[in-house]
Amino acid sequence: MATEQLKYRGRIVTDIDIAFIRRLVSDNPGLSRRALSAKLCEAWNWRQANGTLRDMVCRGMMLQLHRQGHIQLPPVRWVNPNPLARRNPERKRPAAVLVDETPLQAALSDLRPLEFQQVRRTAEERVYNGLLDRYHYLGYTQPVGEHLKYVVYAQNRPIACLGWSSAPRHLGPRDRFIGWSADARRNNIRFLAYNTRFLILPFVTVPHLASHILACMARQVSIGWESLYGHPIYYLETFIDPRRFRGTCYRAANWIVLGLTTGRGKDAPTRTPNRSFKEVLGYPLTKDFRHRLCEV
User: Whole-model pTM?
Assistant: First the structure.
């Protein structure tokens, strides 16, 4: 009977699995670690939601098995250079974007309908990057994993930017609100999107604009996500630093205040808070979001 050896990213690896990997390695002595990982993903049909192989996760699992002595991987053939360790921050900043900074003061009804452009993987992505870098107090940082970037236009002028990315895996107030199990969270976390950036350009003064943009975004994010990544979104979330912001526009757009973070990062070595507490806000996109997200 197979016994559990390892649980890696939600996958249980048994003695039978380890024997299969050993045989895969021995039967393909000329393959690199990367090629073996891809071959194992194919054999197990281990894929992401968009159908691509879970190659990086598989490589991490194989490396952990190798370090624990369960398998013997071939020697490393190539070490990828770390561009983050050597980059010049000034040289790598997004290119500056010239925009019309004439003050825009108007009623929302005079600007509608607004134009929302999803610019991720398009030529207009540089506009989003440059505007965030210049006007947002946190600047621009390149997201990792699945993410979308939106630029909002009015009268042919960019007036706002919104960024969405994969949600953090563990978030107490949100997890309690959804009520999902650990297995359901691992399986369905991809159906959540986290609002990482929201910028109204500083020369734009339009009452109720921010909450209107959030309401429009709630109808578009899932469509954009499915178009780019092959799966929908059922729930949105964000953090608010209460020392700086009240989150009025989110509340006006019917986002739900769920509680506070613990003040600890994901890699915190102790349970002592080491950063500011943030308010957690959520916005379900479907009435049956709990049913969809709690399925295992």
Answer: 0.72
